[in-house]
Amino acid sequence: MNDEPEALLERRGRIGLITLNKPRALNALSLAMIHAVTPQMEAWANDDAVDAIVIKGAGDRAFCAGGDIRDLYEGRGTDFGPTYYAVEYQLNVLIHTYSKPYVALMDGVTMGGGVGMSVHGSHRIVTDRTLFAMPETGIGLFPDVGASWFLNCCPGELGMYMGLTGDRLRAADCLYAGIGDAYVPADRLDALLDELSGAKALDGEGVGVILRNFAEDAGNAPLAENRDAIDRCFAGSSVEDILDRLAAEDSEWACAQLKNLAGKSPISLKVTYEQLRRGARIEAITDIMAMEYRIADRCFRGHDLFEGIRAVVIDKDGSPTWDPATLDAVGADDVAEYFEPVAGEPDFG
DSSP assignment of 200-221, as one string? Predict the structure, then answer.
């Protein structure tokens, strides 16, 4: 049995260092982690001895592969889902609005809940091992943890493309999409951490200077090759319109997107489309998270989330039976239900 805490919290020089510490589970974000990290970050915000926060994942495979969806699956029929999402989204808001530099070392798999723990920070570092994605439509969920904000910050229609398809991005694509700020090879992260922790004082500008000394060229971004087609197709007025535009492209890339989207949850695709279009009109991160909480609550009370987790994580048969089974069977009222207020909504302000 491993008796180590799931989140290691320490002072190292002028930085507060957070290590997500479940390497065998790809540092999946548990409720215990959130409960440990949140009060420590609040304390460091008011600690004059701490100038900046650095967060990283234990091991060399993942920063954080997402929320612990096995816990969600086992919590079906309880209040676990709403409880988890409430505190997770409150932590996302804390990171987004944090008063000190927050440096996320997105080394390895960075997906779902791991994106929420990193992309809201002031300095997002990607490496040669970074694998970024918001793959939620493939498990009957939706891109959450503030994706209604950060996917809409991506240029053109990249955010809609990433949200619907769950495309996996490497370092150069993360920089191209605005998901990362600097590329640092993984074998230089320890030296970077030493430099940050050894600084006599750190502010946002000081962190930036250190990062620029370590940053290297990540190379060409594959996303750029299909950017025009992405912007043409994913500007569609509905999910169906996007599919029609992809079919009209008649290219190998477009065919691959159609095949990919055909395996996603139909209700998740339509809810995600609506979520991102609405998110583009919302300014406050607190309002973003309130909307996402409503969607998450409805997903936890529905069918596709648990069917998706079953197919991908529990039974691993890769053959979810979605309900509704087709896009045609998902009506406007079905989508609107996901955005309705929820009794006892948490305060994200």
Answer: S---HHHHHHHHHHH-------
